[in-house]
Known about the structure:
alpha/beta, Rossmann fold, 2 domains, six-stranded mixed β-sheet, globular, pyridoxal phosphate binding, L-serine ammonia-lyase, Ser/Thr_Dehydratase, lyase, pyridoxal phosphate
Amino acid sequence: MALVTEATLNEAYDIVRASRDCVRTPLLRNVEKLGFLDCPDEVEVHLKLENMQVTGSFKSRGVVVQLAKAPSLVTSGKRSLVTISAGNYGKAFAHACYQRGLKGTVIMPLTAPESRERIIQSKGCDVIRTESSELMTKVKELIHEKDMTFLHPFDDLNLIAGYGSAGLEILEEVNPDIVLVCCGGGGLVSGISAAIKYKGFKDTKIYAVEPETANTMQRSLAQNSAATLQTAHSLAAGLAPPFAGNNTFQHVKSLTDGVLTVSDKEIAKATRVLYNKGLIVEPSGAAAFAALVTGKVPELKGTVVVLVTGGNASTEELSKVFNDYEC
């Protein structure tokens, strides 16, 4: 199965930079000096703040490239779009559809927060709720019955190339020794690893970080094929799809240095640390930081970049997390 190429990454970067739906997000540097965490003196830690992206997560980067590459029947509004999402991709998808006057439907798992559903509906997209195990079944039904076009929320080469733009931005500011990336379906870590490796940083260690209870990518590497985990669940709902993608699995297998896992308690504590330092980050966006602060990164050294991937959580939602996990 083909991986994204350097040419497609560069083209996607041009699309992202030209889009009104994306911004260049800040790299918060040397957070070890700001009291975010303790680490050895020779280690520098920088946070790539995708929680400050348009729509509150990195997802916009991929959606704008998908739509730029979509067939004319879609971009003209003659054919409706459908996707699946627990929240952040759906929000970015709905925002992009609204900006372009396109009709879309988001199929959401029953476990997704109601607040995310309301946000998606406010942009004019329809929402259908179903069991996580039935998400793709519903997609196939709508494609068959209503001739919709499916935009995959993580296992799409255009999407992966769009996500690679975050990696290219990182390389314009620092030369990383280690990069930590939250992993749900694996689209973001696929794009970032491709961008970093293709630009010549062969020795940079790149790790995907998953919840312990939703470790589909870790299982995929163990069995050497994209895994399904119908029982996947986590406080970090955005990191708990019931399956890994075939495309993303191939990228993670070929371009990363493996998968690290963190518990929901560790994710909650990391979210609290970031909150106490003034950053509104949802649990799904804090998983990579959790791996760092809990000492799970092998051979920690040099320049470390952590992707903080989303900030779509209210203070009320975060307060409940902190109370539930006593942190």
